Target: MYO5B protein
Amino acid sequence: PVVRLLEAQLQDQRREHEEEMEALRNQVDLMQEELEKQQQAFLQTLQLSPEVQVEFGLQQEITRLTNENLDLKELLEKSEKNERKLKKQLKIYMKKVQDFEVSQTTVPGERRPHERSMQVAVQRKEKDFQGMLEYYNEDEPLLIRNLIT
Model:
């Protein structure tokens, strides 16, 4: 049983190796074809007059620069899109902070220092509160005890 398992693993590895070798051979063939095309283009360029060689070189450089500019333009568009997204997020967070600050001004004076210390913790945790807690004055000791525990 162990020998058969090892043989099966060896055959799998051999098959993977052969597939990898075939892929590499195909890649080498493609590179050789590309090299031959470039060599032919180079030889044809050498047979041209010096003026035409310069013009051909300029056309090649223009093509390269055009492609580079298109890549840079695409990168710029992605950056601008990301900037707009971040600005929208900033506006949302600023609105949440303003709403929270407004809710803090409506709290009675005796509870304000405690609420401000909570504000710092809330901003660090970035929690989103939907409203404030409403309670009767006589339930305040019970509420505080429950909050502490």
Notes: The longest helix spans residues 50-105. Residues 31 and 37 are 10 Å apart (CA to CA). DSSP finds four helices and no strands in the chain.
